[in-house]
Design goal:
Helix content is 48%, strand content 9%. It is an alpha+beta fold and 630 residues long. Strand 7 and strand 8 form a beta hairpin. Helix 16 crosses helix 19. The longest helix is centred in the C-terminal third of the chain and has 23 residues. The protein is globular.
Amino acid sequence: MISQQAVVIEQNEDLKSLSKQAVTFDENGNPVSFVFSDIWDFSATHPHLGRDAKIDFTGYLDFKVEIQEALYLINKQNHDIAPKSLKLEAGALNLIAGSIGASDFSLLASDNVYRKLTTALSNGYSASSIERYFGVINKLHAAGLTERYIKSPANEAIVLGRPAEQHICLPEKFASRLFNKLIEFVETYHPYRHQISNAYKAKLAYDEQKLAEGYAQVSLRRDPHRRSIEINGQRIQIDRDAQFHKQISHSCMMLTMAFTGVRFSEACSLQKDAYFTKSVNSVDVSFINGETTKTNEGCPEKVSWVTHPIVGKALELAYDSSEWARRNYNVLGDQAEREAKSCFIKAFGARNGEVFSSALYVPSDLTKYAETFCTNHNIFPDDEDIREFDLLNPSRIGAFVVNKPPKFSSHTFRRTFAVFLCRNQIGNLSALKGQYKHINAFMTKWYTNNADLARALDLRLDETLMAEIKAINDDVTAKMLFDIFNSDSLSGEEGERIVAARNQPGENSMYTLAEIKAKVKSGLYSIVEHPTGYCMNPKCDRICNSDLSTFSCTYEVTTKEKALKRIPELERLKNEFRKANNGQIATYGLLKHYQMKIEAIEITLAKHDVVLEKFTDVIKAKPLLITAEV
């Protein structure tokens, strides 16, 4: 029998051996960090990660050595694992050890000890987090550190964890108010972006001179040392707090995320030349190039996103107006210089003139500003917004409150982009419609089935965003179809076919939501939402969405709800007709067009038993008749 002393001696020898094992190296292959170093520093091999290239173990006081040993052993065969993944695994090992009150992971084989862990995890942890912790336990098993093995981490995590809260999608009218105000902000200050940077540069130079002369920092905030610039009659304060700089950076980032769907970290990767255009079918289409770390084991990869031309202006404004701040990062070394290439950087001189360890903001900076922006511009939800919010976000009912700004997350803009792209309403979210009508069609095609075009343009798609949009599109499509198939009143050629089929003896056109989702995923159903109704043509180009489609589209379906929303448009058309009906020959074509649109809406409303007084005005002008010469 081996004595306890012999076991201790063997363990100590193992620790001595491990202490000599290097885990990170410099550019020349020389060791930088060892297994029991306080910090594992991957900066030389992963310079793009900045602060995330370092794993700090000093916070794991009770279990530091055991966590480092386990982390090394479970990953020693995997030399390509990303530092971010290692950091998550270190946190998981610390949580497991804390939950069972011991750093001997072999104890997890005991049902009583394992029950301690599952009890702790069931107390508020999400299913996705628990699945990650169970995955680490299985790694411990593979490394021979425990006999506990979890056959299905995902299934067990669902049983124990709280349901993951879905990131919110903003209601259309609320999003439109917010995005239009952001567009207005960018359009207002874009022409003055160099002037803004020069003003900050001059203020910093002035302050540095006065500090050298012996002035106190605090005194430079007072008259006569204050500086400001005037833009469109607005007096803007220029000082070392750089609040206006922050407004520009955050507003431009919000707008960029809103019209691309990029994540926060991906937005931070956007540099001066990120925006470009390519000709597609004789149309200039806008793109941005950035980096994502969500694939390829956390290593950055170049990815392209299709976007709106306003994003080009937003990136120019953010980058050029912050040029004054970039020079301040040169003294902080390679990491800061790399980060300072981003369009969205902090001001170097903040309150009291202290320097920052990073040039980049963190997500909470943006989300707090988003709430402040809504408050400052009086953008609050109303009752209609709340009704739509609850429909779009069934797991977050009650999160939208009248006259209070919503609680944003950095993913809010991504989900809103994805949902409204699927609903073909991206164009409805901004005032920049008209000449950009093609963007609706191209964006949708790009993210649903455009891999071939991406290859032809030599661009790499954001595959994770495409997958997210595909899942959302299936849900949105299924909900639309569920409402249609179970609606009491339908018009349009396709709508009338659905009603006729439903009335046939033995026919079943009433489906559950689950049945419809299955048909959507199998590709049997397709639908596109328009302001006038829905189109069930799978090849619909999403542009022929006018009232005249009542006459021309054989795939159109209009619900009573959609029909009723056309009444204000009907009244507008009648007023426009009467204003233009002055007997002038030149107005005949326009009036005939109004007349046809009015008739189309009246036909649609009549099919839903909506009784309105029929429009009977006649065109006063006579059509111009052209006769051939004899």
